[in-house]
Request: fold
Amino acid sequence: MKMKSRPEITKTESPTIKELKFIISRIKKSPLSIIGVAIIAFFTAIALLAPILAPVPEGHMDPYRIPKTGWSSEPQAPSPEHLLGTAQWQFDIFYGCIWGTRTAFRVGIIVVLGNLLIGLAMGTFGGYYGGLIDELLMRVTDIIWAFPSLLLCMAFVSVMGPSLDSIMLALILVGWPTYARVIRSEILRVKLEDYVEAAKAVGCSDFRVITRHILINSIYPIVIMASLDIGAIVLTAAVLSFLGLGPPIGYADWGQMISLSRGFIFKNAQDPLGYWFTWTYPGIFIFTFVLGWNLLGDAFRDILDPTLRRR
Amino acid sequence: MGMRTYIIRRLLLLIPTIIGVTLLIFAVMQVLSPEQRAALYITSEKEAGSMEEIIEKYGLREPVYVQYFVWISQILRGNLGWNQKSPRGPVLQNILNRAPATIELTIFTAPVIIFTGIFLGVAAAVHRDKLIDHITRITSIIGWSFPSFWLGILLLAIFYAALGWVGPGRLCTEAAVFVRTPQFTSYTGIYMIDGLLNGQPWITLDALKHLILPVISLTVQSVALIVRVMRSSMLEALTKGYVVSARAKGLGQREVINKHVRRNALIPVVTLSGMLCAGLLTGVVITETIFNIPGLGQYAAHMALPPPDLAGVLGFTLFTGVLFVIVNLIVDIAYGYIDPRIRLD
Reply:
């Protein structure tokens, strides 16, 4: 007798996969977010290929220091040796823009990770255990929110001393409360669900309940929102760097390159915009980079917003 | 809860927040050595004779809680420390001297931002997914992504360097010289008003002309947020039952939007004015630096520039923190007036 073919097991997709598919289908439908993805992919390629696009000169120790080819304080117009010209003190603008992409990603990724880790830890503890820890968390976040964030960052950086590390640390110190509050309210919402109750009833440890049952059901939108903040973070870092609170002069950093070009808006009566290249190129890099993240972020905000989605 | 109880409760809540604000600044100060902190206490240059005397006098090596009370009592007396960078002098005095330029700038910017923001947000929501919506959305994303300092440089390059139309600063050279002569009395420090009070309308016009570029630069930075909130709050209001019933009783589109939807959709925008205030306070730091306007923002940027004047930086941060808390209080109270449901919780 022939064996009957087994009935096919109908696979139900996990909600996470479903959500992911829904998001991807929505992104495909929105041309703006596709442009956003393309811009971010382009910059990722620049960052990865930096050593090929702008080779580090031999004997140059730190690749993030822009090589300089002279000491003249007058910027030189674009030429075959310097594709985008040179800035004050002969820093090569092309090299600075390319390696500056790596700096931008580094700042964005480190700050997002810092914000998420601290936010997750604080938000989870506060939301799950409640009580004194929660009260303390709420008050600390209230206090940090009582200041306009850029001004608080400025104060932190000037006390710590200007550098890229100070900027990143300041951005994390000011940024984590937002995530902690979002995660906290998510945990408060999920922790009363039946399946959490059930997990506790079968004797799961707090750690297991938090990681395997609560976080897994609430973390994805937060992680996505946090990563899409990279644009805003890089922009704020550029502002701080522009104000002179960033890395030392000559570091491959877009904000600082624009700061170097501030004195070169006006050349002379014959050729008023003679130094246009000093501020145009680094500006285009910052703007496009931030635009890419914001285009994607804008699409996601609608996708993730439960009151607006699926209409 | 009545309005009065609501206001009293909000005022009481103000106290712990202000204490929190001072605690944060004080915590930041603890990173510094007693020698660095001395400038945050002294009230005149003569006092800066011997460092050890000052440290002794203000108890800068005492336990932390003693230090906090000494510091707070100085703050309550209006002593935020001494600026060692120019303009040398008491921090609070320097901040107040810089206020008129910033007030002049923000008074003109705020209405521009609010009206453009509300107008564009309503237009985008009413014509959802139509051309207007897409254009508004794209321009606001672009405006939001534009590095404000770069925008300032581009505006100066076009209108100052290329066209020679208007330069940086608050006034042209001629006017700037004139306002320092004895013929011109500074009543408010706001040139636009002082020009009229002195019977010199050309000063007013010149001040106005010099405000156009900074106002554009500030608006582009902050308007996108208002547009976004207004749009989504309109979209939400449009789906409400009262809209359906207004339509059902035969009201036209215009009446439904004007009388029923927009009023309800404005509520979240009121909260936004708090954020707008933060946006302006932040925005002036960049705008005033680029356009060389001697206001609060330029003061903050100048004090933070290495080597920093820490008394100035921390004094200014404390000042903005307290200012921002008070603005939020006013917003909350206004919110309670507009939306009675808020007073209930």
In short: Chain A is about 65% helix and 0% strand. Chain A touches chain B through 51 residues (CB under 8 Å). Residues 29-304 of chain A form a domain with the MetI-like fold fold (CATH 1.10.3720.10).
